[in-house]
Amino acid sequence: MASYMMNYIPELILIIGIALMVLFSLFIDNNDENKERLLAISISTMAIVGSIFVLIMNSNKHVEIFSNFLTIDPLATIFKILFLSVALVSVWFFARSKETNQFALDFYVQVLTVLIGMMLMASANNMLGLYLGLEMVSIPSYLMTGWKRSNNGPEAAIKYTIYGGAASGVMIFGMSLIYGLVGNLSLSSIANYTHFNSSNKALWIISILFLFAGFGYKVAAAPFHHWSPDVYQGATTPVTAFFSVAPKAAGFAMIIRFFYKNTITTSGETVTHVLNQVPWTLLVAIIAVITMFIGNLSAIKQTSLKRMLAYSSIAHAGYMISVITVSSKMAITSILFYLVIYLFMNIGAFIIVSIVMENNNGSDDIKHFNGFGSKNALLAIIMAFFMFSLMGVPPFAGFIGKVYLFTALLENITAITVTLAVIAIINSAISVYYYARVIKAMYLTESTNDSTIDTTIDFKSILFIFAIIIFVLGVYWAPLFNLLNKAVVM
Amino acid sequence: MSSYILSLMTFIPLFAGIIIASLAIFSKKKESEEEQDSLDGLIKWIALGVTLISFGFAIWAYFKYDPTKVFDLNAKNANMQLTEHYYWIRSFHITYYVGIDGLSVLMLLLTGFVSVVGVLASWNIKKKVKGYYALYLILIAAMYGVFIALDFFLFYVFWELMLLPMYFLIGIWGGPRKEYAAIKFFIYTLIGSLFMLLAIIALYYNLPAGQHTFNIIDMIKHADHYASIKILGLPFDKVVWLALFFGFAVKIPMFPFHTWLPDAHVQAPTPISIILAGVLLKMGTYGILRVNYTIFPHATMWAATGIAVFGVINIVYGAMVAMAQRDLKKMIAYSSVSHMGYVMLGMAGMTAAAMNGAVLQMFSHGIITAMLFMLVGVIYERAHHRVIDNFGGIAQLMPIYAAFAGIAWFAALGLPGFSGFIAEALVFLGSFKNLQPYVIIAALSVILTAGYMLWSYQRVFFGPIKEDMAAKYHYRSFKDLSIRELIILAPLAITAIIVGFYPKIVLSMMDGTLSALVNYVTK
């Protein structure tokens, strides 16, 4: 038992962090909010850094713990490091953004709880674990969305809760159907299921369809995406930045676990799996196509930057979902690679949006970007880097990310993958239009007012680092790719 | 140093561009106007120096190039010269592989020449000078890169790298509808090149296991393999050929994907029009020759008639639309569409003479159109309009200008003695064997070309001065060409004439390469 717990240390550190925060808050003078906040920020930062450190130390481990309930493998570890890194940047962002810097200790408790949930999603080897993780992420997320009562947060939070409740209800129904079929909730038992025949085929299809309600909701795939624009717009910008990457990555971790568990061997070949008998690739392909089109076409007409980025993140989920249809090592690596790059470009874009909002009374309308290029050349060029990277043009990392997605799709050509690749291309071209609107506003349009846009040195340096990463990964990405490729062993 | 000619040629402008861009970003807000202006003045000279250095390297490459060593798959590097080959991304088999043959050396010369002309033409730009030259130099670097790359991934990166500076150069420094023109250019070319990207990845994965590569020369060695496999029941080589061709055709621009060109040209500032027409369009036809012809000889033979058909459509359609234009710059933009049609026709001819004509036309059109756009820029700078009918009698006011315009106009319509004539004649002669009906139509439409060129020249330069317009636009106060404008126009005119009288200077460089290419494709 003790050795089991050894492998659970990263999560335990976070749990201790939560416990400490709750405990300390009892002893701190209630009137001294600043002290409390400082304490919360330092404990969360230390917990996250400690957790990342332990994960890196044990990154090669491959064990199953808690009676095969959780898998600790390099893939899960990479995902966990990804979540924690997002959280680390987000904690800084929460602490420094004017929108969220008044949030007290209990807010950071939610953040750490979400983290534990996401780590559970990445590790779970059991549908119950997946479900628990999903709920553990969702419920604090509802709270975080509505944390600030002044703007549209509470309304968005209610929407989020209702959608989330419905989606997870449908999902758990699908899980119960599978339980009925297999007699077990473990993913390995599903993989080893041998009684597949024509009479239960329909039931399998239905249950996977239902499961996808939960998956789709978490990664904001159409037609389960309706919550995301409202939540992204209603929540405070740092929270949105966090939501746009971390839970989405957790959703992909879950999807990869579910569909690829025991389907891919170390050497990258696919083996027989009950899911290979069900036409789920077609289902996923259809979802991917709808998601890409809805995301990109809806983003075109948005004037609120946060809403536009919400739709753009739906579209990016669509690109990644289309790769799910390919059961290959390359597919998983390319999704991981894309997620890492997506982290930098998307969070970076949200940080800039929040800076612009702070300088314009909290409005995220695109017109406030007019003349940005001459108001603050450094921030504007960094934003341009992020936009070009999101478009996927060289020499930025987003391009390489897309190249690998296409590579995964075209490695073994089938009618579905070629169609998906062509549709992804058309969508990339559509997306250029709305990202370019930001560029256009920044450089091609003159500002109508003479307000300035500026920020503190820590914002500037973090953004600068992000921009450099986006550029460097666009030119030399081999170390990152090899690292991720090594981790993808099931 | 001589073994790094190609890299230096490309990366000097690239780094100069990045440094100037950083200067623009990190420099403090204007402290004093004068200080800012002196720095801007310096940057112009730096840009001129950098483009001259790169042009120098291009000339050096021209002299180092040995035209007797022609394309041969059995030779090392297939006889590509001045090659450099390094690993870039080992796990994905991407290399930094550059080299030149007779085709690219000519394009490098053209790029060098036109880029220097472009800097001189930009001399009067006052708005955001640092940003302008930074983008300009990055654009130049990307163009050099396209012409030297022998690794398909590298090629694609350079190909796309050109989009961003071009977008800004049209979008910030352009005319009234610059934003529309810039985004249209961007989206059109991006769709084309994304199809190219898919084709590249498909090419990569459809090599035999263990031999995956982006190396174009290695891909050529597998030409028969590509021709033998199928993709979803369709012949692989033809499908991929079409995807690549689409990517290149948007750049040429081939009818019906040409509509970005008139918008981009009309809105772009003069130097950018010069670069666009002078070099950028050639990248499309260069790409087809470099990639489609070599990797897919069978599919190319299959598609040759198709190229010819679209070439002829470009010629006739471009000429007819040009004739209908009221705006001088738009007329020249459409004349580019028409002239690029000759290149396509020549490429489809599949004889050494036709191919020589096609590539010579690429070169000659680059020179002549650069001159035409410069001339339009000169008059626009003075009159602030370009409507053909509002001019008249300009020859009386600006005789030297009219003389240079005469040279450019006659060179463009293919008068003997100018490079355009040799090119068109070679295209017609060479293609006649295989493509008789198309050549006849194309040759007849030379009349159309003469028609719109002469008619526009007459309306602008001859006849009485229109007094009402002269009063409105102050024609009487127009000065003739300045020294700077003369320095730009004279070398262009001289080149067009020299190549017109002694085309061997160009043909001798490329003839070997192109004959080998034709033999390879038609075998």
Summarize the structure.
The complex is a heterodimer of chains A (490) and B (523). Chain A is mainly alpha-helical and 490 residues long. Chain A has a domain at 279-490.
Keywords:
heterodimer, A: 490 residues, mainly alpha, two-stranded antiparallel sheet, 21 helices, 2 strands, B: 523 residues, 23 helices, globular
Can you tell me about this structure?
The complex is a heterodimer of chains A (490) and B (523). The mean pLDDT of chain A is 87. Chain A is an all-alpha fold and 490 residues long. The two termini of chain A are 24 Å apart. Chain A is globular. Helix content of chain A is 75%, strand content 1%. Chain B has a domain at 297-523. In chain B, 74% of the residues lie in helices and 4% in strands. Chain B contains 23 helices and four strands. In chain B, strand 3 and strand 4 form a beta hairpin. Chain B is globular. The two termini of chain B are 39 Å apart.
Q: Which helices and strands, and how do they pair?
A:
The complex is a heterodimer of chains A (490) and B (523).
Chain A: H1 2-6, H2 9-27, H3 33-57, E1 63-65, E2 70-72, H4 74-96, H5 105-123, H6 127-145, H7 153-182, H8 187-191, H9 198-219, H10 227-234, H11 237-260, H12 274-277, H13 280-300, H14 305-324, H15 329-358, H16 372-375, H17 377-391, H18 397-410, H19 415-444, H20 457-475, H21 478-487
Chain B: H1 5-26, H2 33-64, E1 81-89, E2 94-100, H3 102-121, H4 129-148, H5 152-161, H6 163-173, H7 178-205, H8 216-221, H9 223-228, E3 230-231, E4 234-235, H10 236-251, H11 260-267, H12 270-295, H13 297-323, H14 328-349, H15 352-383, H16 394-397, H17 399-412, H18 419-432, H19 436-444, H20 446-461, H21 467-473, H22 483-501, H23 504-522
Antiparallel strand pairs in B: 1-2, 3-4
Helix pairs in contact in B: 1-2, 1-4, 2-3, 2-4, 3-4, 3-12, 3-15, 3-23, 4-5, 4-6, 5-7, 6-7, 7-10, 7-11, 10-12, 11-14, 12-14, 12-15, 13-14, 13-19, 13-20, 14-15, 14-18, 15-17, 15-18, 15-22, 15-23, 17-20, 17-22, 18-19, 18-22
